[in-house]
Design brief:
By secondary structure, this protein is mainly alpha-helical. The chain has one domain. The chain is 61% helix and 0% strand. The chain is built from five helices and no strands. It is elongated, with a radius of gyration of 20 Å. It starts with a helix and ends with a helix.
Length: 92
């Protein structure tokens, strides 16, 4: 696999992991019981910590990409393994 392909696939894993990690542990003012500032949106988070999100996202993306690359290198799961309806045979 070329380096550009590895980088592109890792970025896809990272963005997907970011969307998974972002909502975890976020609380708004109503849930925390803290008074809102005038003009503040109702759903604005109280405890947003971007560094923690970046770290967890990178950790999850690296673990997921590592499993993906190990599968790519070792061939544990292939298209024939997950072809439950024999569609590849019908396309020939």
């Amino acid at each position: 696999m070329e380096l550009t392909s590895v980088l592109a696939i890792y970025i896809l894993f990272w963005v997907t992991a970011a969307f998974i990690i972002l909502p975890i542990g976020i609380r708004n003012h109503h849930e925390s019981g803290i008074d809102m500032v005038k003009g503040q949106a109702d759903g604005a988070p109280v405890n947003f910590r971007p560094l923690r999100i970046l770290m967890l996202t990178t950790l999850l993306a690296t673990a997921g990409f590592g499993l993906f690359y190990l599968n790519y290198a070792n061939g544990w799961i292939t298209l024939d393994t997950i072809d439950f309806f024999n569609s590849r045979e019908r396309m020939r």
